[in-house]
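thread: overnight batch results

M.L. [08:02]
morning all. the overnight job finished for the chain we discussed friday. pasting input first so we're all looking at the same thing
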Amino acid sequence: MQIPQNTVIAVADGTKLSLFQNDGTALNVKLKALPDEEIDSSKIASGARHSSSSANPDDSQQAEDGFGSGVTDMLNRQVLDGKITSLVIVAAPRTLGEMRKGYHKQLSAILVGELDKDLTGHSVQDIEKALEAA
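M.L. [08:03]
and the structure it wrote out:
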């Protein structure tokens, strides 16, 4: 995947978010860590408000989905405020699916790409390699 310089890369799963910026070139990705952002994970997707049972997600899954929605809300705000002008999202497959539900049209417009892999907890070099191979 070619990632333009200064693109923000959001790496998320259901409990953790890491933000990076590409300080390299489109073909030679060099990630620099960005400060952590506050995430409101209290939002639960519609349909997930029911109590846990064998037919409904458990509480931890609801919390993970809420975190994914919170990450999307934060990214939407930053895009709308002009703080993010180019974005790549790397997330665990289920988290990415939850996040997609809340993309604002302006976020979709500046989205360079998505990678459905759980790379939270991996080294910066591993994330760079995965992005270059995508």
